[in-house]
Amino acid sequence: MSIIGHGPYAAASLIFNSKGEVLGVSRKHDFEDMGLPGGKLDPGENCVDAAIRETFEETGLVITQLKLVFEDYCGTTGI
After folding, report:
1. Would you give the DSSP letter of residue 16?
2. 53: Cβ–Cβ under 8 A, 6 or more apart, which residues?
3. Helix, strand or coil for residue 10?
4. How far is 63 from 68, CA to CA, in rounded Å?
5. What backbone torsions phi and psi does residue 20 show, to the nearest 5 degrees?
6. How many angstroms separate the first and last alpha carbons of the chain?
7. φ, ψ for residue 64 (rounded to 5)?
8. What are phi and psi of 25, to 5 degrees?
9. Pairwise CA distance, residues 12 & 40, whole Å
10. Rounded CA gap, 27 and 61, in Å?
11. Residues 32/35/40/45 CA torsion (nearest 10 deg)
């Protein structure tokens, strides 16, 4: 990943099971809202390491096979 802009940066994981279903997690401030496991990068962390860490923290799953499918810089300081 080529870092552009000033962050903050975030990473998420898109995880499929054998049936092609996508793993979703509830949001910490709204348990009825679903999204992908992920979050902001820690200082000095890259996107791959952040995706692995966030997925484990939110699901208990250890992911090892990652493929970058999208990256973008939106220019905002937060979501």
Report:
1. B
2. 42, 45
3. strand
4. 13
5. 85, 10
6. 21
7. -130, -20
8. -125, 150
9. 9
10. 17
11. 140
Q: 38 is written with which tokens?
A: 């992920």
Q: What is the pLDDT of residue 24?
A: 94
Answer whether the bond into residue 8 is a cis peptide, omega within 30°: yes
Rounded Cα distance between 37 and 56, Å, is 9
The encoded tokens of residue 63 equal 């992911």
Give per-residue pLDDT as tens, 25-78: 998 888 889 999 998 889 888 888 999 999 999 999 999 888 888 776 666 655
Structure tokens of 25? Answer: 């997690």
Structure tokens at 68: 């970058």
pTM: 0.77
Q: Which of 74, 10, 9 is nearest to 36 (CA)?
A: 10
């200082």: which residue's tokens?
43
